[in-house]
Amino acid sequence: MNLYKTAAFVTVCAALEHALGFLYRIVLSRTVGPEGLGVYQLSLTVFFVFLTVCSSGLPVTLSRTIAKHRAAHNRRAEESAVSAAVSIALLFSVPLTVLLFLLRAPFSRVFSAPRCADLFYILLPGLSFTSVYAVLRGSFWGNKRFLAYSLTELAEEIVRIFAGVFLLVLAGTGPSSVNRAAVAVLISYLVSFALALVCFLAKGGKFRAPGREFLPLLRSAAPVTAMRTASSLVNSLISVVFPMRLMAAGLSSARAMSAYGVVCGMVMPVIQTPGTLIGSLALVLVPELSECFYRGDREKLSALVGKALGTALFISCLLAPFFIVCGNEAGILLFGNAECGRLIARSALILLPMSLTMISTSVLNSMNCERYTLLFFLLGSGAMLVCVWFLPKYLGSGALLVGMAADYTLTAACSLLLLRKKTGKRRHGYLLRLAAAAIPPLLLGLAVRALCMKVMGCVPALFLAALTVLAAEIALTALLKLANYRTLFKKFLPKKRAQRSAAT
Length: 504
Prior knowledge:
By secondary structure, this protein is mainly α.
């Protein structure tokens, strides 16, 4: 399977997973309400801090280590690396789980609402299982077993949705509904671990004594783990500081938690839609980039980096007009929340720095630049925390989105400068042409939406406006030669069929 078909397959699985998760988020938000969603999101955020400490740096590091051993045709070292990663995950997760249960009373005071602590301790038994699951998926990633990688992740989402809907229906709309949603998350963690282990063993995966792989893997994973742990800590800090600053600006505790729930539980899942596509691209490219890096194939490495950056730019500039044109009404239709729609429309420009940050960080990590990405992350997080502390008085819930924009912009700028130094790739000319091509479809979509809203219902008006934007974008990007759709389409045709098409 070539690079394009692999990326397409992973993207379809990721898009399906994201779509299912998004639909579940709608059901969840309408069942537990904005305040309940804020409690649910805050508990998950704190749990992810500990999950990040135990395993976050291992998948990408193990993937790169396996790619290195594959280039040297050293199968025994691959198996030892997997065992070392599992050992590291258990070494951190098991003692941490026991300690947190022993210190439940004092640790519960960390949460601003008692309900958050209850949800956290429902999730905690899944910490070790999920940490090992992350390692197993890292082995799939390094061996380019994208089918197992994608399907186990999709299965986790499906189990979470079925368990969540079943338990939420039983719970109704009472306070316990949020707890049952957390139980559904725990069930999905256990099932995904079991499925990944079966896939690993069924394909001949073996555990071998870690040997010399333990310490190098631990040292290599440390910077990535530090960066992602810092990210989780920052998110946890924001989940506490942001409502606190909103209350200092005059909001009640319930309204502040609701505002946090709207931004993190409703707006961000929509804004992060490009992350599905960017993440799929990074998933496919990282093993290829690592192999090129360790082989010293600078020319191919530079070409792959150029494709990755160009694709990220194309996706973000293609989707931003849709958010601006349809965001207001989409928030009301999806979540029944007008504030959510307003924030979606106003935050569309975040897509560009967010997409560039995601892809450039993955690319740099595959090139053994974890220390640089950690530094860039800390700079961006500092900018976000400053915005969250000082701006709620003036912008309300929009302060968090401004902070995210500052974070992504600073991180993307630093990452692109480093990539330019290492590969010589520049994409500012392509970006300017994409931005110019996005303006006419945006204006046309706004005009069509305004006209259709006067003569038809909201749903058909939004559908026609979105269709207009899509048609105009395809036409302009093809006309300006920003995308060759014919060549791209042929990449997915079977070889014989493509040859017949070329002959005719």
